[in-house]
Design a protein that fits this description.
The protein has 213 residues and is mainly alpha-helical. The chain folds into two domains: 102 residues, no CATH class; 79 residues, no CATH class.
Amino acid sequence: MSREVPMSATIRFSQREIRDLLVAWGALGLAFTFFLNRSLVSRVLQAPGTIDATAFAVAFVLSLVTAGVGFLLHELAHKVVAIRFGQVAEFRADYGMLFLAVASGLAGFLFAAPGAVYHRGRATLRQHGLIALAGPATNVALGVAFFPLYLFGPSLLGEVGHLGVVINFLLAGFNMIPFGPLDGKTVKDWSFAAFLGAGLPCFGLAVWALFSF
């Protein structure tokens, strides 16, 4: 029978996990920097010596605090809830997929699958569903948290808010698709009612974000 541990239980990170998290965060930041700033890509490919280091640094940090944080907190939410249900859970970066993410960002499209939280231990179908649901729910919460900055309009803060809202809502909607290894399938396998209750708002927010991108 599965067990639940106290909410105060310590969340531990191995050295390998910390390394994987930092590498994934940096690679995603780089991938989104290239994807969102096509003029930078042109200079990287054609005239690297003409790159404005300050502009590149600003774009990179912007990607780290929006897309990078959205992806990684999504995965860490899975870890926290899995541990809450007595699982052993750790994030592992997929270095091949991270390379593909950076390469695709350079090419003008983006395919980002930085890795996953792997957990083991006895768990009920409901607990598996809640572990899966934690990721998209975190992205929705992050999108809401970024929204006040979005209201600053055409400014640096407004750009942070815009990207934070759009990327997190898109991540929430995408991950709730009930297909393959995505979170939506695990939630749907547990409870169709829970899938509808969480999925429909996520899909609606993702559609809004897509038209706002």
